[in-house]
């Protein structure tokens, strides 16, 4: 399932009220950036606000509220707050397991690594070691 979330911010600047919302494809961010850029910057870009403007500076002082999380992102949304760090860790773990599962099937005949925790841990550690070399 696709991981996405709606980000919303509302603030006033020079007598005008701004109410900005963006639907953010979290998978795309993770696959291309391997982390999150500022959600404020995403909202600004999607709503054609220059990140070098006073409007953007005011926007940075306002808390973003999140809603409508899809995929595993829903596990990390609580009362409008989104735990980005925990989501990133879970997303990376799921991606690693998606890469390792076909190897476990092909080489060991194991259909679900989650049923073999010690083997899963060993394969994940070997994978992470290989990434550092």
- Cα-based radius of gyration, to the nearest Å: 19 Å
The count of helical stretches stands at 5
Low-confidence stretches: none
Gross morphology: elongated
Strand order of the largest sheet: 2-1-3
Write structural notes for this entry.
The protein has 133 residues and is α+β, with helices and mostly antiparallel strands. It contains 5 helices and 5 strands; from the N terminus they run ββαααβββαα. The strands form 2 sheets. A 3-stranded antiparallel sheet has the order 2-1-3. A two-stranded antiparallel sheet has the order 4-5. A hairpin with a 2-residue loop joins β4 and β5. It is elongated, with a radius of gyration of 19 Å. The chain starts with a strand and ends with a helix. 13% of the residues are buried. The mean pLDDT is 92.
State the gist of this model.
The chain has 133 residues and is of the alpha+beta class. It has helices spanning 26-33, 39-46, 54-60, 84-108, 117-132; strands at residues 4-13, 16-25, 65-70, 77-78, 81-82. It is built from 5 helices and 5 strands, in the order E-E-H-H-H-E-E-E-H-H.
Overview features:
elongated, 133 residues, alpha+beta, 5 helices, two-stranded antiparallel sheet, 3-stranded antiparallel sheet
Write the layout of secondary structure elements.
Layout: E1 4-13, E2 16-25, H1 26-33, H2 39-46, H3 54-60, E3 65-70, E4 77-78, E5 81-82, H4 84-108, H5 117-132
Antiparallel strand pairs: 1-2, 1-3, 4-5
């Amino acid at each position: 399932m696709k991981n996405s979330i709606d980000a919303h911010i509302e603030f006033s600047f020079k007598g005008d009220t701004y109410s900005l919302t963006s639907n953010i494809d979290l998978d795309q961010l993770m696959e291309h950036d391997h982390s999150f850029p500022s959600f404020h910057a995403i909202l600004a870009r999607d709503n054609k606000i220059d990140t070098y403007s006073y409007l953007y500076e005011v926007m940075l002082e306002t808390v973003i509220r999140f809603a409508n999380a899809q995929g595993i992102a829903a596990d990390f949304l609580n009362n409008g707050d989104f735990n980005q760090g925990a989501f990133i860790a879970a997303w990376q773990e799921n991606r690693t397991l998606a890469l390792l599962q076909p190897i476990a099937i092909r080489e060991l005949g194991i259909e679900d690594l989650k049923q073999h925790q010690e083997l899963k841990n060993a394969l994940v550690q070997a994978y992470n070691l290989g990434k550092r070399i």
